[in-house]
Design a protein that fits this description.
two-stranded antiparallel sheet, binds iron/sulfur cluster
């Protein structure tokens, strides 16, 4: 497996963009397109985090702690459409259990619209996907959720309560998440697809309520734009992507 460790972050990024480019060429417009892109991103994240985190302390996160799920979640368009598909496919079943997930998402989107990271945390509003302390969308959760991993649950509780503490967040998770997500965004950009970052709930609400949103995105439109986060600097990101060589020589 290609990893940030064996060839350096630039080479890993270049290899990932080539892999995403190939998926976009082969699958764009097909029903399985966003699923294939996200599966590629999630598999790469999992595999490379396992390598990078070797020898680091055990994580406190076991998949059953919602403490950090009051933070703003930002995600790319394929991740948003994957979550929207999950919601559309499961809303009726969840409603039978008294969970109106779409209404929850819309309410959170309205409450958190336009908030930056600090203001979103200060809102202390739990993600609408949390039910009985568990994430309903765990299998399809965005890279941002996968990449936020802690060594210390108590420190997370203090931090999300607004207290100034040093949270023990896993650097390998942050770095690999950033590399994988940026590689996917770079490939979306060079393919003429909307490649920005969106607030999760606002964008999922839009994806569910906008006719043919995913189809329009496939055609190069940006139907999620009203939920784009204001603090994403597209020009700066584009300049960074363009500065990374398209390929790097392998070690002998
Ligand atoms: S999508 Fe799931 S993991 Fe991510 S913030 Fe919401 S509840 Fe937490």
């Amino acid at each position: 497996m290609t990893g940030p460790d064996d060839r350096g972050p630039g080479a890993f990024f270049a290899a990932m963009t080539q892999a995403f480019d190939a998926t976009i060429r082969a699958r764009r417009g097909r029903h399985d397109f966003v699923g294939a892109l996200c599966a590629q991103a999630f598999d790469s994240f999992d595999g490379n985090v396992a390598i990078q985190a070797e020898g680091t302390p055990a994580l406190a996160c076991k998949g059953d702690c919602p403490t950090c799920c009051v933070l703003r979640v930002v995600a790319s368009a394929p991740e948003i459409f994957l979550v929207a598909r999950f919601v559309a496919a499961n809303a009726a079943l969840l409603a039978q259990h008294g969970i109106d997930l779409v209404a929850r998402i819309e309410a959170t989107a309205a409450a958190a619209a336009g908030l930056g990271e600090i203001e979103r945390m200060a809102l202390k509003r739990i993600c609408p996907f949390i039910e009985n302390g568990l994430c309903l969308a765990y299998r399809v959760r965005p890279l941002a959720c996968r990449g936020h991993a802690s060594y210390d649950e108590a420190a997370c509780r203090e931090a999300t309560a607004g207290h100034a503490v040093e949270t023990a967040i896993s650097t390998p998770h942050l770095v690999v998440r950033s590399l994988v997500q940026n590689a996917m965004m770079s490939s979306l950009r060079s393919s003429g697809l909307a490649w920005g970052l969106y607030e999760l709930n606002g964008a999922v609400a839009l994806a569910l309520s906008t006719p043919e949103a995913e189809l329009r995105w496939n055609e190069g439109d940006d139907p999620l734009r009203p939920a784009a986060i204001a603090d994403f600097d597209a020009a700066e990101a584009a300049a960074i992507f363009d500065s990374i060589p398209a390929s790097a020589p392998r070690h002998a």
